[in-house]
C-alpha cells in the first residue's frame, strides 16, 4: 500500500527538524569542547552527526578535526583519554598523558561532562527570552472564557466532559490560562467543571495517554467553545461553503431548521448529510436568509474557524498580550525554561508508569518532525527548538552509560568514594549503554513507521 505524501509539506517539516537538531547538537558538543579546552584537554574530533567509515566533510585545524558525518543520529567530540562512543581501546592502554581527560582531577572531568547540558539549558532560556522580547506573549485568561469548552476528542466525552462545561480546576488546582488546559489534562487524574451552575467532577482514565497514542489523534482534547461565525473557508476541503453563498460576517443560527449557536452544535448536523446538501439559516446584517450548501463524503462543507483575534474582537474571550523589554525578557525566559522542564518531567514520569500506556507514545524523527508547522514560521521554529534543547539536556542527564549522565554518575561515585572505576568496567558500561540507546532508538522510530506500540 502506497502512502500519499505531500512532499512540499514534508520538505518544510524535515528542513526545520534538521536545522533545529543541527543547531542544538553543535551547541551541545561545543559545551563539552570549550570546557575540555579550558582544562587543557586535547580534543581530537568535533563532529556534527556520526561518521562511521566516512564523513561528508572534514578539516583539521590545529589538533582538532572538524567535520560533518553522514549518519544524522547526533554528534560528538572525541576528547583524548576518554572512554566514549569511539571506543578507542588502544589509546587507553598507554600511560596517561597530561593533555588527556583521564589525567584530570574528578571535578574538572565533571565540569567537562556537564558542559553540553549546561549549554543546552542556557540556549533554551536565551531563545525563550528572545521570543518574548521580539513577539511578546499572547494568553487567554480562563476567567474570560464565558462559553466554556468545546470537547474535540471522544475520549473526553467518554470521561464525562460535555460541550459548554466551564473548567474550575484540574488536578485540584485552578488553571489561570486556557493555553495550559490540554497539557494539564495529560498529567492530571481529575477535573472539576461548572455545568449550568453545578460543579461536576470528571475522573480521567489512568491510561488516557495510551489511548490517545493508540488512536493516533494529534488534535487537542478541548478547545474554546466558539460561536457559528463565518469568516474562513478550509482550502484543503472542497469549499462547498464558499460557493454556496455564505459570506464573511454571516452568523449561522440554524442547520436544516435546527437552532444552533456554537460550532460544536453545527458539526454533527452537517455530518449527517454526507454527499448531500444542507440548508444554513444565517443572520446577515440583521436580515435572516437561507443558504444551501453541498456536503462532501466526509460530512463537511469546507467551513473553517475564524482567527483567534476575530473571536476576541467579538467578545468570545480575551487575548492578553504582554510585551517584554530586553531586560525583562531574560528573567522571564529563565522562568519559562524551568516551567517547560517541569512539564516535560511530569510527562516523562508517565512513561515510567506502564499502566498509563504513555510508553506507547515514544516516537522518533517522524514524531519530532510532526511537531513543526507545515509552513515556515520563525516564532514557532524557535519555540520548538528551545523545547528540544530542554529535552536534550534532560535526556542527556539520565544516568545511562554512553550518555553524559552515565559519565557524571561514575565521576560522582569516584568523588565520594575516592576510588576511580576500573577502565575495563567503564568500557563494558559504555557498550551496554550504547546497546540500550540503539534499542530505544529502534523502538521509537519503529513506533513511527510500523506502529510497534499497538
TrEMBL record:
<dbReference type="Pfam" id="PF02163">
    <property type="entry name" value="Peptidase_M50"/>
</dbReference>
<dbReference type="GO" id="GO:0004222">
    <property type="term" value="F:metalloendopeptidase activity"/>
</dbReference>
<dbReference type="InterPro" id="IPR004387">
    <property type="entry name" value="Pept_M50_Zn"/>
</dbReference>
<keyword id="KW-0479">Metal-binding</keyword>
<comment type="similarity">
    <text>Belongs to the peptidase M50B family.</text>
</comment>
<keyword id="KW-1133">Transmembrane helix</keyword>
<dbReference type="InterPro" id="IPR036034">
    <property type="entry name" value="PDZ_sf"/>
</dbReference>
<dbReference type="GO" id="GO:0006508">
    <property type="term" value="P:proteolysis"/>
</dbReference>
<keyword id="KW-0472">Membrane</keyword>
<dbReference type="InterPro" id="IPR001478">
    <property type="entry name" value="PDZ"/>
</dbReference>
<dbReference type="InterPro" id="IPR008915">
    <property type="entry name" value="Peptidase_M50"/>
</dbReference>
<keyword id="KW-0645">Protease</keyword>
<keyword id="KW-0812">Transmembrane</keyword>
<keyword id="KW-0378">Hydrolase</keyword>
<feature type="transmembrane region" description="Helical">
    <location>
        <begin position="110"/>
        <end position="135"/>
    </location>
</feature>
<feature type="transmembrane region" description="Helical">
    <location>
        <begin position="381"/>
        <end position="404"/>
    </location>
</feature>
<feature type="transmembrane region" description="Helical">
    <location>
        <begin position="425"/>
        <end position="444"/>
    </location>
</feature>
<dbReference type="GO" id="GO:0016020">
    <property type="term" value="C:membrane"/>
</dbReference>
<keyword id="KW-0482">Metalloprotease</keyword>
<feature type="transmembrane region" description="Helical">
    <location>
        <begin position="17"/>
        <end position="39"/>
    </location>
</feature>
<keyword id="KW-0862">Zinc</keyword>
<dbReference type="GO" id="GO:0046872">
    <property type="term" value="F:metal ion binding"/>
</dbReference>
<protein>
    <recommendedName>
        <fullName>Zinc metalloprotease</fullName>
        <ecNumber>3.4.24.-</ecNumber>
    </recommendedName>
</protein>
<feature type="domain" description="PDZ">
    <location>
        <begin position="206"/>
        <end position="286"/>
    </location>
</feature>
